[in-house]
Amino acid sequence: MFHFLSKTAKFVWLLCIVAVAGVATAQENGASQGSAVSSLPSVLAVRVTSTPERARLIMDLSAETQFAFVSLSGPNRIAVDVRAEKFVGSDGGIASGTGLISNYKMEQIGADRVRTYLSLGGGAQVQQAYVLAAFEGQPTRLVVDIIGTSDDLFLLKVAEDAQASSAIAQNAANAADTLTQISDAPGASQIEAVSRPLILIDPGHGGIDGGAETAEGVREKEITLLFARQLQEVLIASGRYDVALTRESDVAFWLEQRVQLARDNKADLFVSIHADSFDDPSIRGASVYIRDEEATDVLDKVLAENENKADLLSGFIPDAEEPAVVNILVELMRREMRRQSFIAARAIVDQLKPSIRVRRFPLRRADFFVLQSPDVPAVLLELGFLSNSSDSENLVSPAWRQRVAEAVARGITSFFDGNR
């Protein structure tokens, strides 16, 4: 069944829902559609990337619009509709990478609708779909994330969609009662959560440790707390998570205390928030770190050492003694947490890329003390650089921080959906 969504007002677009066969309604060809069609956006470009586990459709649009999707069999496909006047360029192509989606094809199936067929190599389902407003030279984008599922579940979805489409075609007046509307809210998902994971957000620095600072006096500790609160609100609003902060105000916490909070509360994911500075003001962009004793490059090593020295500013010296014997079970657990941390970091990076400016290699490694928990997946998000004027302008913007918070929330949901 097709579920049409609007970014500003979520509602079902009833006039253009069709049966699975794809028969256009009379209204699509009628003169009454003329004025509405002329105001619709165009599809500027489409690209599809795929791996054996996940796939993504990104559609560049000239303006925001509604979208919908349906599962089809014979052959197995997912069809994505957008309300659009036309599409520009090629009518299809091969997916980048191999896995869930092999190729895609586009059709103008009505005066005000463009459909993209995604050919599947196995069972699959839409995990989340959302529209990103135009930003910093990037056009409006529709992003559809798809994950693998069993063939049986896919065919069940096909049957459900066919039944719903048939009911809608027979009785459009009652269509609103026969549809189950999905949500394009950040952090939401079409996959029902079996539990509510606990996300612990760690606003970096605090108290006498102000962190990095701009020439105008904007301090890192203030930015990280503002962003942490916005991310908390987005995650809670999705209804999927329990969310807590390591600090709710301008107070100092030792790095060891932050790690222990995550462990004591059995957090399912620890997300540390920072916004750093560097000698070269040209360096900018967000990045996500996981822990590794070998830093990705010299800059990463400098950043990590600065964070780890923050405890000395608070008058705390961590115990330097190493245990004589390492329990092999603990080591295995630590390896598993690093694997989970990598998956979480990659999921967040995948959502940041189409949303904001990221560093050239946004998934990075460094020996941050705060990421050392042996039993909690942990990532560190560098929002940007206060030493860069463009990043600084973004960091103090509530709208920009909200955009990042929504992207991070989608990444967190992608991580948990893929690790159910």
Note down, in words, how this protein is organized.
With 420 residues, the protein is α/β, with parallel strands linked by helices. The protein folds into 2 domains: 14-178, Sandwich (Immunoglobulin-like); 198-418, Zn-dependent exopeptidases (Aminopeptidase, 3-Layer(aba) Sandwich), CATH 3.40.630. Helices cover 31% and strands 26% of the residues. The protein contains 11 helices and 16 strands. The chain has helices spanning 26-29, 34-38, 151-170, 175-178, 220-237, 255-264, 298-308, 310-313, 328-352, 389-395, 398-418, and strands spanning 42-50, 54-61, 67-72, 77-82, 86-87, 92-94, 101-110, 113-120, 124-132, 140-148, 198-203, 242-245, 269-276, 286-291, 358-366, 378-385. A 6-stranded mixed β-sheet has the order 12-11-13-16-14-15, sandwiched between helices. Strands 5-1-2-10-9 form a 5-stranded mixed β-sheet. Strands 3-4-8-7-6 form a 5-stranded antiparallel β-sheet. Helix 5 crosses helix 11 (398-418) and helix 9 crosses helix 11. It is globular, with a radius of gyration of 23 Å.
Q: What would you say about this model in short?
A:
Helices cover 31% and strands 26% of the residues. It has eleven helices and 16 strands.
Topology, element by element:
Blueprint: H1 26-29, H2 34-38, E1 42-50, E2 54-61, E3 67-72, E4 77-82, E5 86-87, E6 92-94, E7 101-110, E8 113-120, E9 124-132, E10 140-148, H3 151-170, H4 175-178, E11 198-203, H5 220-237, E12 242-245, H6 255-264, E13 269-276, E14 286-291, H7 298-308, H8 310-313, H9 328-352, E15 358-366, E16 378-385, H10 389-395, H11 398-418
Parallel strand pairs: 1-5, 11-12, 11-13, 13-16, 14-15
Antiparallel strand pairs: 1-2, 2-10, 3-4, 4-8, 6-7, 7-8, 9-10, 14-16
Helix pairs in contact: 5-11, 9-11
